[in-house]
Amino acid sequence: MRVSVLQENLHKGLSIVSRAIQTRPTLPILSNVMLSTEDARLQLSATNLELGITAWIGAKVDEDGAITVPARTLQELVSTLPHERVDMDLDIRTLTLHLNCAGKTANIKGMDATEYPLMPEFDAAHAIAVPGPVFKEMIDQVVFSAAKEENRPVLAGVLMRLEGDLMTLASADGYRLSVRTTELEFSVGDVEPEPMIIPAKALQELSRIISEEDDEILISLPDERGQVMFQLRSVLMVSQLIEGRFPDYESIIPRGYQTSLLAYTDDLLAACRSSEVFAKDSANTARIMIEPSGNVNVPGRVIVAGRSQE
Fold this sequence. Notes:
This protein is α+β, with helices and mostly antiparallel strands. It has 3 domains: 2-115, DNA Polymerase III, Chain A, domain 2 (Roll), CATH 3.10.150; 124-251, Roll (DNA Polymerase III, Chain A, domain 2), CATH 3.10.150; 257-309, no CATH class. The protein is 18% helix and 38% strand. It is built from 5 helices and 22 strands. Strands 6-2-3-4-17-16-15-10 form an 8-stranded antiparallel beta sheet. It has a 5-stranded antiparallel beta sheet with strand order 5-1-7-8-9. Strands 13-12-11-14 form a 4-stranded antiparallel beta sheet. Helix 1 (7-17) runs antiparallel to helix 2 and helix 3 packs across helix 4 (200-209). The longest helix has 15 residues, at 265-279. The termini are far apart.
């Protein structure tokens, strides 16, 4: 393998795929990142067997090949290089990757790429398209209320449900519940996929990866794989699904109400942040009182103006 890439592109690609590498992997090779050439591009792949990420970056490929090298070593090295062209040459006999950038050279011992777990190819036949900015917003609005502990695995995930032209994400940890629904441009068809539970950690990483360039995201649900795949402009993420039955959250959402309040989001958020200082002395609980005038009173004598209806 002989390939040349820009330092900033290589550094960005490594930063993306390294999100799939665990601190203490179950297998030594899982601490590596795989570098391979594909269609005049450099492909970077990493996996922990539950989450896999592949990124493609533009490259000048003089000779095809593949190798896996320690991800942390390569990432730290590339971060110290100047913003110049990085030339990489693989010695297939010794499995050593030689790097040269603006006169700086380094050698990294690697492992055979054939020993690395294969990343599945994107299944476009079972894919739906969603706007990238909308999907990122949906994730951010629900993922925070998923359980942090994994003693109940289904609560450590986010339910994704597709019905007609509607997509719903929901999460709950036993104390909080978040639900967000959006309308798709196209219906998923007559055969609707079963609701699936995606690990919240995977969606958090996906949200961090989605950029302004990702105006559309393809979501694929391969048959009988127990996986979900997300195809971005230059990134592919594959995540295992969580088995189990998600709680019937719709049954606990009140159908009616006695009092409703309309308030400015920024004002309410600022009041909650201020009251958090006092809530630390009361088991991190806060009591919100809605006054007849429409004001909201929270601990610490923080008042938010609003309009109430009973």
